[in-house]
Input
Amino acid sequence: MTSHETRLLRLVGAAAACAVVATGSIGCESSPPPPPVVTRVAPPPPPPKPTVTPIDQLMVQLGIDERVQLLEEDAPAKEDDRRAVLEFFDTFARSDATALGTMLSMLDRLELEDLVRSGAWEKTTSQITRIHVQTGESPDGQACALAIFYVGLGHQPQLWYYTTSIDGATFDAVATPPNIMDKLSGSDWIAAWFELLEQELALAYKPDEEFVVPQKIVSGKRGGRGSSVTPGGAPASPTGTPGGPGRRPPPRNPRRPPGPPS
Output
């Protein structure tokens, strides 16, 4: 074999080797498929916390008479309740019997109409100097509003249940224990009010004891003609609260508040 032939074979072999290497390298060095693109989705924002308008701001927005005093810590947690309570007691400060009547229960509305006819409504409300308001709940969870009316040199409390809806608010007076202002104590007067009512209710269900009815001799002999027998005992005193006395008693055996007022 000549040198030329040897050289030619070497070139052919080298070319074949290069082709094999090239073919193998192409297969080995092919790019893998790209990884999937992961798109991160931001979590939805948390729902906004419910907010209520501060009492001072509501007083201005609603044009509430400054004699109505409701502290922020004594106000309802719901916006509609705040508005209803402020507007309710504003009717007393402004002697607005018409607006008040639309917010009262039927029984209290009748009481109000009697007061208006007698002139007592105008006479009493015209002397209001301040209405201190506190809100809370009854032992069975009903929304309540307590007001201390400062009328002239005196003061008189009244407690209401109330409800609010899309149709408006309704206030229903709660029964008032006798001499309530002398017995209320602590910081939570609504809880104290229901404690006193529960005590009165317990006394009402207590079995009657035998007693001798005192008698007054007007003329003649005892039990004879011309005599007048009058049962003893003091008459029940009205509440004197503008808007009529409370008549709705608390539920029987209500849940006690968590501890007595401090």
